[in-house]
Amino acid sequence: MNSKNHWTPIDLTIGSLFVAMMAVGANITSIAPFMVIGGVPITLQTFFAILAGLILGSRLGAFSMFIYMVLGLAGAPIFAQFKGGASILLSPTFGFIVSFILIAYIAGKIVEKRRSAPRYMLAALIGMAINYIFGTNWMYAAYILWFDAPTGFTYQMAWYWMIFPLPKDIVLSIFAAVMAYRLEKSFIAKSAFRNQKNIA
Fold it and tell me: Is 9-195 in CATH node 3.40.50.620?
C-alpha cells in the first residue's frame, strides 16, 4: 500500500479514543491515593501508550500521545491526580509524560514491518524500558537542577522509587502485547482502519 500524508476520520476517531483512555489511566490514583511512591503516581498510562503504538502505528500513536500532552499542558485536568496546566513542565514527573510519545512511536515502528507475536512482546518491553529510562533520568535531573529534592536524594534513590511500580508495568506491558496481537489477528488486520494504512 502507498503511505498516506494525512489521516482519515477513522484515524482521528480512534486516536481520540486513546487520548481519552490515557486520561482515565492517569487518574487511577484518584480512587487509590496510596498508589503514589516517591512522588511518582502508579498509573495505567504506560499500558495505554504501548497499546497506542501497537494498534495505531508509530505516527498516529505518537500523535495521539502528543495531543494528550498538549491538552494537559493547556489546562485540561487529564494528567495524574487530575492535574493540568503549563506548571507541569517543571514537575519532576513530566519526563514520563514526554516518554509516552516516544513509547508509542518506537513500539509502533517495531511491529509495523512484521506483526508477529515476538515482535509485539519485544515492542512492549522496549516501550516500558523507554518510559523508565527517560522518565527516571528526567526526574533525577529535575530534583537536582530546579525542584526541591527530598533529603538525601540520590540517583540510586530515584531508581529505588521505580522498583515499586516495575512489577505492575512488566505485567501490563506483556498484557498489552498479547492484547494488541490478538486484536490484530482477530479484527484489526481485516478492518478498514488497518487496510487504509501502510502498516501491514
Answer: no
